[in-house]
Design brief:
Number of helices: 1
Strand content: 25-35%
Structural class: alpha+beta
Strand order of the largest sheet: 2-1-4-5-6-7
Order of helices and strands: HEEEEEEEEEEE
Radius of gyration: 33 Å
Largest sheet: 6 strands, antiparallel
Oligomer: single chain
Length: 196
């Protein structure tokens, strides 16, 4: 006959307090490292989202200028010498809107880059330059002034052999949370109405 001796249960079964404290400490270190990375990723996402919003605003401004210039006519370059037909260096441009009356000077549209009330920016007018509306947000600073427009082929028809053509250059910087990001945008627009 085989008899088995009864085994005693050990009083030391389970985890000791030191083992539990070590396991909790390791868990907290891993969680804190993960939380730091998660918070940093969230911060970068917010910065990227806000920067994207500012860049979308700048793209919208360029698209608005391009669309209105493309459908407009009778371009006039505005430079330090006043208003004229064409010019390679202009700080503004005025034109007749698509359904505008060339005989009425108060319905001309215009885009200007300069300082108004101490604020440098991109301005738009739809009433012949009487009322100016700032288009860019304060985070966008235009630094490539005074010449941001170039108008070619806007002379009166007898000596004009080129379709009116406008080049818009925007050079500046975006400042967001003390971080400056330079930008340089350029687009060219040809008048849709044939004028040669």
């Amino acid at each position: 006959m085989n008899y088995e001796l009864p085994t005693k249960k050990s009083k030391n079964a389970g985890y000791t307090i030191i083992e539990t404290m070590i396991a909790i400490s390791l868990f907290i270190i891993i969680v804190m490292t993960g939380m730091g990375a998660l918070l940093n990723a969230n911060l970068l996402h917010q910065k990227s989202k806000n920067m994207r919003s500012i860049l979308d605003n700048l793209s919208f401004i360029m698209e608005d200028m391009s669309k209105n210039l493309r459908t407009g006519y009778d371009y006039e370059c505005i430079d330090d010498g006043g208003t004229g037909g064409s010019g390679p260096d202009c700080w503004g441009i005025e034109f007749e809107q698509q359904n505008g009356d060339p005989a009425n000077p108060n319905d001309q549209w215009g885009y200007y880059i300069g300082t108004l009330n101490g604020t440098l920016g991109i301005y738009k007018s739809v009433d012949g330059g009487t009322t100016l509306v700032k288009l860019n947000p304060d985070e966008i600073a235009i630094t490539g002034v005074p010449f941001s427009f170039s108008v070619l082929g806007a002379e009166p028809p007898p000596g004009d052999s080129q379709q009116p053509f406008v080049t818009i250059k925007l050079i500046g910087k975006i400042t967001y949370k003390n971080i400056e990001t330079p930008f340089s945008l350029q687009t060219s627009v040809s008048q849709r109405v044939i004028d040669i």
